[in-house]
Design a protein that fits this description.
The chain contains twelve helices and nine strands. It is α/β, with parallel strands linked by helices and about 270 residues long. The protein has two domains: about 220 residues, Phosphoenolpyruvate-binding domains (TIM Barrel, Alpha-Beta Barrel), CATH 3.20.20.60; about 45 residues, no CATH class. The strands form two sheets. Strands 6-5-4-3-2-1-7 form a seven-stranded parallel beta sheet. A two-stranded antiparallel sheet has the order 8-9. One of its GO terms (biological process) is oxaloacetate metabolic process.
């Protein structure tokens, strides 16, 4: 099953690691970057590496967001191991950064570990189609706060200022044949109806899953990305009617045309349900 909820945990708070694993999330993201001040980076790296090596994920994905720059290789080497699902690379601007990470993981014997690239600059955004075809890449993401700062834009509640960036990474992902991008975090974990509505807009744009900063957000994200019984029934009906059609097109219960493009969307709904 593809994960839809990704819960961030600061890498210098090992007392929270186990709680995150039992929170009901599909994936835990141990953060060595923004959540950890410079003076505690080494301590966080050690704590995360030790925990990842000895924990029992029990089916939960374990990702680590590493630091950019000179310490990135050290971060990756420290956490590479059999329990690691993959690495989140921040501020990616070129394919070369993923190639370097791929080589390090190979040297460490982490053959199954995957990568996710966070697009957080204008340079990275324009390079997204190439980045999407990088080795080991499972999905793209946007670091929306950093990207907005780099672009010099002011984002309001509608976030319409980010529409181009969001659509670009969705398109780049589809063109490269990788998983759809995971939506960026929201600092809102108190007004859950608003958070859920925002997440639903991101799903309609083509995102699949969302990073979370608080366990309270998990249920809303799962509700958005889990098809309802009505959606499943409608998808099954579309496929059934098209299969029984005497030509390459059919008609649904509302008299609307059904073709292979409609069927692809229906199959996607059923895949999410599974």
């Amino acid at each position: 099953m593809t994960a839809t909820t990704y819960l961030y945990v600061p890498g210098d708070m090992p007392q929270r690691f186990g709680k995150a694993l039992r929170s009901g999330t599909d994936a835990v993201v141990l953060d060595l970057e923004d959540a950890v001040v410079a003076a505690r980076k080494d301590e966080a790296r050690t704590s995360v590496a030790e925990w990842v090596a000895r924990c029992d994920p029990d089916g939960i994905e374990l990702w680590v967001r590493v630091n950019p720059g000179d310490v990135q290789a050290r971060d990756i080497r420290a956490v590479a191991g059999p329990n690691l699902t993959g690495i989140w690379l921040p501020k990616v601007e070129s394919v070369r950064e993923l190639e370097v990470a791929d080589r390090i993981l190979t040297e460490c014997g982490a053959d199954d570990a995957r990568l996710s690239a966070l697009v957080e600059t204008a340079t990275g955004l324009m390079a997204a189609p190439d980045i999407a075809r990088s080795p080991r890449l499972r999905f793209l993401q946007i670091g929306e706060v950093d990207l907005a700062a780099d672009l010099g834009i002011e984002v309001d509640d509608s976030a319409e200022q980010l529409l181009f960036a969001r659509s670009r990474v969705v398109t780049a992902s589809a063109a490269a044949g990788i998983e759809p991008p995971v939506a960026a975090v929201s600092v809102n974990f108190t007004d859950l109806p608003a958070f859920e509505a925002d997440t639903r807009r991101l799903r309609r744009l083509g995102f699949a899953g969302r990073a979370c900063i608080h366990p309270k957000q998990l249920q809303s994200v799962r509700a958005v990305f889990t098809p309802t019984a009505e959606e499943i029934g409608r998808a099954e009906e579309v496929l059934s009617r098209l299969a029984s059609a005497t030509s390459g097109v059919g008609v649904d219960a509302h008299g609307h045309l059904i073709d292979e493009a409609v069927a692809r969307s229906a199959r996607r709904v059923l895949a999410r349900a599974r």
